[in-house]
Amino acid sequence: MTILVTGATGTVGRLVVEELVRAGRQVRALTRDLSRASALLPAGVEVVAGDLADPDSLVRAFDGVTAAHLITFAGDDYAPLKRGDEIVELAVKAGVRKVSVLGGRADGPLEQALVATDIEWTLLNPVEFMSNTLRWWAGSVQAHGVVREPFGDRLSALVHEADIAAVAAAVLTGEGHGGRTYTLTGPEALTTRQKVRVLAEATGLDITFTELTEQEARAEWRSHGMGEETIEFLVRALGDTPEVGYTVVPTVEQVTGRPARPFAQWAAEHAAAFRP
């Protein structure tokens, strides 16, 4: 009963591996970079090399697998999979019976291919990851004690990446989740200003929030090498966050039996990464 975890050295993937190992499951971890696996994954996990962008590289990974955690993008640029149907074909041939799909969209090519099979699928749609805070803020907080962002009053029901992983593991090892789409949020909706205050308390730092205008934000993002398509996405997502992005739902607790982790907990866990 081997479970394949794709993106196994990623932010969520490595936590899915940990959850499954704790549950006593046999895990096969797929990664594009074998050199990262030993540092990030539990001892004893079977690790195989493969690239979701190249389904031909995945034949060995799927051999003997009964369930799989799939992601819908490949590469560091998070580009959507173009050959998702071929990945599903491999899963069917291998006898996979159950999958969780992170970032699953009902109209995605991989998801549409899954629907046409007998595989029991569950789509996981997290809102903003708490871990984005580390990606976007750590450098400026370390160097200058400041967070520079637009839309300071924007609300987000951001979710802890460990809760996403816990839901994925519960789906893969439990029953009653087939054919469902789960929106995943944290237990509260916070504004950007509130997030800064929570992070300041957790780190013990005097963190200043500087609210950028949209044009200032665009210029800053360009200076960091972002492409125009990414910038336009951020302006839309941050400037006009859809209701689903700030509406708290109880899915994490309903699926895992544990309350969703608050941002204060995430900030305390990662406080050292923000300190000079």
Architecture overview:
The chain is 41% helix and 20% strand. α8 packs across α12. Strands 3-2-1-4-7-8-11 form a 7-stranded parallel sheet, with helices on both faces. A two-stranded antiparallel sheet has the order 5-6. β1, α1 and β2 form a beta-alpha-beta unit. With 276 residues, the chain is of the alpha/beta class. The protein contains 12 helices and 13 strands.
- How are strands sequenced across the largest beta sheet? 3-2-1-4-7-8-11
Calculate Rg over CA atoms: 19 Å
Unreliable stretches (pLDDT < 50, length at least 5) are none
Shape: globular
Structural class: alpha/beta
Terminal residue distance: 46 Å
- Determine the strand fraction and express it as a percent band: 15-25%
Tally of helical runs: 12
The helix fraction, in percent, is 40-55%
Order of helices and strands: EHEHEHEEEHEHEHEEHEEHEHHHH
Largest sheet descriptor: 7 strands, parallel
Mean pLDDT: 94
- Work out the number of β strands: 13
